[in-house]
Specification:
By secondary structure, the protein is α/β, with parallel strands linked by helices. The protein contains eight helices and four strands; from the N terminus they run αβαβαααβαβαα. The protein has a four-stranded parallel β-sheet, sandwiched between helices. Helix 1 packs across helix 2. It starts with about 35 loop residues before the first helix and ends with a helix.
Length: about 220
């Protein structure tokens, strides 16, 4: 949902196509995925008819891992490669997590983990009925993210732009820089004010940077 208003702030020659995953929005009644590779296969099938023109992926946090594996899948199965990959707020996939899984914690402890992450408002956390509705989706997302295992494979050969939050304690700069080991293309890194959710708090600056890089991508196509 955070991407729905981005189009007006991106270059006019770029078409924004937000992806709504199962378990949220209009797909609320569908079961959320708990495995990256199973999700990537469905995404590839759904997106393939639209990839006849130059395309790029932007993924924040869990979305960065999904986008990375989707790019690898499309190259392996369809010989397609994004013109550019934009990864935000996520350690490189070959860097192991620095904490134990939380997706299978009892509800009280899981809610503490959500509060510490600061991605769920205090108001929402204090509404039992709302959290009862949201917990299965949140647990699924955490499971998908926390059970993901990187497998060695050929390097990608497209440019990467990596974005991070200066106060994101869970994703330090060196874990962002490590994305550069996964492609033969050029890699840039830019840090923005804010924590893990700088995509919201520093949105204007982020979209200015993203727009500049997209224009460069389009004009060199």
């Amino acid at each position: 949902m955070i991407f729905r208003n981005w189009q007006s702030q991106l270059p006019s020659e770029v078409e924004l196509c937000p992806v709504q995953l199962p378990g949220r929005g209009r797909r609320l009644k569908e079961a959320a995925y708990t495995n990256v590779h199973a999700l990537v296969q469905e995404l590839a099938q759904g997106l393939f008819p639209f990839l006849g023109k130059p395309f790029a992926f932007f993924g924040h946090s869990m979305g960065a891992t999904i986008s990375f594996e989707l790019a690898r899948y499309l190259r392996r199965e369809h010989h397609l490669m994004p013109r550019h990959l934009f990864f935000s707020g996520r350690r490189a996939p070959h860097i192991p997590a620095g904490h134990a899984p939380t997706y299978n914690l009892p509800d009280p402890e899981f809610l503490i983990a959500l509060r510490d992450l600061k991605g769920t408002s205090h108001e929402a956390l204090e509404q039992p009925d709302l959290m009862e509705l949201m917990l299965p989706l949140l647990r699924a997302d955490f499971e998908l993210s926390e059970t993901y295992t990187y497998l060695n494979g050929p390097l990608l050969d497209c440019p990467m732009s990596i974005y991070g939050g200066q106060e994101d304690d869970d994703v330090p700069r060196e874990h962002l820089e490590a994305w550069g080991k996964l492609t033969t293309g050029s890699v840039s890194l830019k840090m923005f004010p804010g924590d893990h959710f700088f995509v919201n708090t520093a949105q204007t600056a982020l979209l200015e940077t993203l727009s500049e890089e997209l224009r460069e991508m389009v004009h060199t196509a």
